[in-house]
Design goal:
Blueprint (H helix, E strand, L loop, with lengths): L3 E7 L8 H16 L2 E8 L8 E4 L2 E6 L7 H12 L1 H6 L2 E5 L2 H10 L4 E6 L10 H13 L3 E4 L2 H6 L5 E3 L18 E4 L8 H11 L3 E4 L5 H5 L2 E3 L7 H5 L3 E4 L2 H9 L3 E5 L3 H7 L9 E3 L2 H9 L7 H9 L4 H12 L2
Parallel strand pairs: 1-2, 1-5, 2-4, 5-6, 6-7, 7-8, 9-10, 9-12, 10-11, 12-13, 13-14
Antiparallel strand pairs: 3-4
C-alpha cells in the first residue's frame, strides 16, 4: 500500500480540547504511525502562542488566523486558504471535518481532487438554520463521500451517509459494584442543547452533587450543584472514580461504557432523541427525557446496573484502529 498525501481541514486541533479535535488527532496519529498516510492538518490558529507551521509526532500542522466577523471573516478565511493553495495542490486526498465552507473556492479550482467530509454533528440549534442546512447539502453534493458520526444526521440534514460511525475509545476499565452514595460526573459541553439544565434541576431536587468535565455558558449553574473541572485531555481518571456518568455526546458515551460505568444521556429535544434513541447502543444506556426521569433514575439507579456489562463489551470493540480503517476504506487507500 502506497503512502498517501493527506490534508485534514478542521476548525480546531490539538492542543485544543474537544470531541472533534480528539477524533482528528487519533486518526492522524494512527495513519502516520502505520505509514498509510503523510498527514497535514490545516486549522485555525486560535492562540497566538501556537506556531503557524510545525511538525508534531510526524504530523504537519499548518495554522492560520482570522478575525471572527460574520461574512467578512469567511472571505478572510478564503484568502488565507488561497495562500495555502500549495498544500491542497500537493495532497492526494483532502478530508474536511465539518468546515466545508472554508474550502469551497478551492473545491472549484481543484475539481478533480479527491475530497471527502466527516459530518460530526449539529450546531445545537433546532429547527436547523437554513444557512446550516444549505452548507451541509452543498458539502454532501460536492464531495466524493462522507462519514456521518451518527445515523441521525441523514434524517436531520436530508443526506445519505457513505459510512456511519459513533467514535472510538481507548479506555477499558473493569466492572465494579455501584456504591450506595454514587459519585456522579458529567462529560461534555456545558450548554443547553445537551440537556444539561435538566440535570442541574434534578441535582438540586435530589441533593446530589456532580463533577463536571467540560466548559461553556452554564458553568456558573453547574458550580451551584457541584464542581467544574473544565475540559480535560484524558477522562480515564474521572471515569475510574465515578459510578454514574451523564454523557453530553457520542465520545463521552462510548468512553463511559468502556469504563464499565452506568451511562446516562438526556434526550430532551427532537435532535437528541433521534441521535440516541435508535442507534446501535441505545438499549445499553439509560435515556432520560425529562427532569422527572432523571430524578427517578438517580433514586433507583441500581436497577439499571444490568446494562453495564453489555455496554462495556460493545464499547471496547469501538477502537480508533477500527475508525481509521473506515477512513482508509472510504478513500480506497
Amino acid at each position: 500500500m502506497s503512502t498517501i498525501k493527506l490534508l485534514f481541514l478542521t476548525k480546531f486541533y490539538s492542543p485544543h480540547l474537544g470531541g472533534v479535535e480528539k477524533h482528528v488527532s487519533q486518526v492522524s496519529n494512527l495513519l502516520t504511525k502505520s505509514g498509510n498516510a503523510k498527514v497535514t492538518v490545516l486549522t485555525e490558529k486560535y492562540d497566538n502562542r501556537l506556531s503557524s507551521d510545525e511538525v508534531s509526532a510526524g504530523i504537519r500542522i499548518a495554522r492560520f488566523k482570522y478575525p471572527h466577523i460574520r461574512i467578512i471573516g469567511l472571505f478572510l478565511i478564503w484568502f488565507e486558504l488561497l495562500k495555502k493553495i500549495k498544500l491542497v495542490y500537493e495532497s492526494d486526498v483532502i478530508h474536511v471535518h465539518d468546515v466545508f465552507i472554508w474550502i469551497l473556492p478551492l473545491r472549484v479550482i481543484f475539481f478533480w481532487k479527491k475530497m471527502y467530509i466527516t459530518f460530526h454533528g449539529w450546531e445545537g440549534r433546532y429547527p436547523i438554520p437554513l444557512s446550516s442546512l444549505l452548507q451541509k447539502k452543498l458539502a454532501y453534493f460536492l464531495t466524493d463521500g462522507n462519514i456521518c458520526i451518527g445515523k441521525y444526521l441523514e434524517q436531520l440534514y436530508g443526506i445519505k451517509s457513505t459510512v456511519v460511525t459513533y467514535g472510538s475509545t481507548e479506555i477499558n476499565l473493569s466492572l465494579r459494584k455501584l456504591r450506595k452514595n454514587p459519585k456522579i460526573i458529567y462529560i461534555g459541553r456545558l450548554e443547553s442543547d445537551t440537556g444539561l439544565p435538566l440535570l442541574i434541576g434534578a441535582l438540586r431536587s435530589t441533593g446530589y452533587k456532580a463533577t463536571f468535565y467540560g466548559d461553556g455558558p452554564l458553568r456558573a449553574d453547574c458550580t451551584s450543584v457541584g464542581v467544574v473541572k473544565g475540559f480535560v485531555k484524558d477522562v480515564s481518571y474521572a471515569l475510574e472514580n465515578c459510578d454514574i456518568c451523564f454523557a453530553g455526546g457520542y465520545l463521552s458515551t462510548i468512553d463511559s461504557m468502556a469504563a464499565s460505568r452506568l451511562t446516562a444521556v438526556i434526550t430532551h429535544n427532537f435532535v437528541r432523541k433521534i441521535a440516541f434513541e435508535h442507534e446501535a447502543f441505545s438499549k445499553l444506556i439509560t435515556i432520560c427525557h425529562s427532569e422527572r426521569q432523571i430524578i427517578n433514575f438517580l433514586k433507583h439507579y441500581s436497577t439499571e446496573s444490568f446494562k453495564i456489562k453489555l455496554a462495556h463489551e460493545w464499547a471496547i470493540s469501538q477502537t480508533w484502529e477500527k475508525t481509521t480503517k473506515l477512513y482508509l476504506n472510504l478513500w480506497n487507500a
